[in-house]
UniProtKB/TrEMBL annotation:
Belongs to the ABC transporter superfamily. Residues 8-257 form the ABC transporter domain. Coiled coil: none annotated. This is ABC transporter ATP-binding protein. Keywords: ATP-binding, Nucleotide-binding, Transport. It comes from Oerskovia rustica. It holds the Pfam family ABC_tran. GO terms for molecular function: ATP binding.
Length: 264
């Protein structure tokens, strides 16, 4: 069960990007996120689904502080993050972490797994050197990797194991919320369910808020307690997984549901 008070809230968040391409055929601004309200609670998975370009990744970056909203507010534990000083923002950085789609690019390929996991602990000066070593091996246990994985490079393990390393790194600072942006899309179909089950299991064991982002509504259904459907920068439907699947109110949601189901 989730706690009632949201740990993370987005309030009327807008993000306008300068367009990457020239002006001839495209407007020079992209309203990537257009007035999104969202609440993330501990112990609950909120799935965000929508087609490519609807603003999911931009929203994920806002949630972890990698993208400043053009307007609106981000509230962590009841306090606005945007209006706070650098120290509060650092605490926010510890409390909300992200897992990206492709661990091959998200992890530094020249660092041993041990150093990848230790790095956030060093940066935030958590505990003594011995505490950090202990934490690093605990992190491997949490994600179901053997201790022998400590002394290898990311390229020396499989894609699924690499994503487990990325999840372990996201857990290093004991966050309240993990934002997982298409965390299984770059993986072999055969290991996707294992990684989804790991995330769901960690959410329950550690009482995390989990934000799960995917273009695939079946994958989102598999892991989510609540689902938000995004279309052109807006949330067009939100409800429990059952509500969204059994009684969709929005035409776009119906279109998504009608699309051919895919393997996890
Ligand atoms: N840094 C940026 N500069 C300019 N435009 C951007 C930037 N990031 C995203 N966009 C544009 O904003 C819109 C939303 O992109 P975003 O990546 O958030 O969507 P998405 O739903 O995550 O799609 P995808 O799954 O393809 O990444 C798109 O039109 C994209 O081209």
């Amino acid at each position: 069960m989730s706690d009632d008070a949201p740990v993370l809230e987005l309030k009327d968040v807008h993000v306008v990007h300068k367009a990457r391409t020239g002006k001839l055929f495209r407007p020079d601004r992209v309203h990537a996120v257009a007035g999104v309200d969202m609440a993330v609670r501990r112990g609950e998975t909120i799935g965000i689904v929508g087609e490519s370009g609807c603003g999911k990744s931009t929203l994920a970056k806002v949630m972890v502080g990698l993208q400043a909203p053009t307007s609106g507010d981000v509230v962590f534990d009841g306090r606005s993050v945007l209006k706070r000083n650098a120290r509060t923002r650092k605490e926010f950085g510890r409390a909300i972490s992200i897992v990206f789609q492709d661990p091959s690019t998200a992890l530094n390929g020249r660092m041993l797994v041990r150093d990848i996991l230790r790095d956030p602990l060093d940066v935030h000066q958590i505990g003594s050197p011995r505490d950090r070593e202990r934490r690093v091996s605990e992190l491997l246990d949490l994600v179901g990797l053997p201790q022998s994985a400590l002394d290898v490079l990311p390229s020396q393990v499989s894609g699924g194991q690499r994503q487990r390393v990325a999840i372990a790194r996201a857990l290093a600072l004991d966050p309240d919320v993990i934002v997982a942006d298409e965390p299984t899309s770059a993986l072999d179909v055969s290991v996707r369910a294992q990684v989804l089950n790991l995330l769901t299991d960690l959410k329950a064991r550690l009482n995390l808020g989990l934000v799960f982002i995917s273009h695939d509504i079946q994958t989102v259904r598999y892991v989510s307690d609540r689902i938000a459907v995004m279309y052109f920068g807006k949330v067009v439907e939100e409800g429990t997984a059952e509500e969204v699947f059994d009684r969709p109110t929005n035409d776009y949601t119906r279109t998504l549901l009608g699309a051919a189901p895919t393997l996890l």
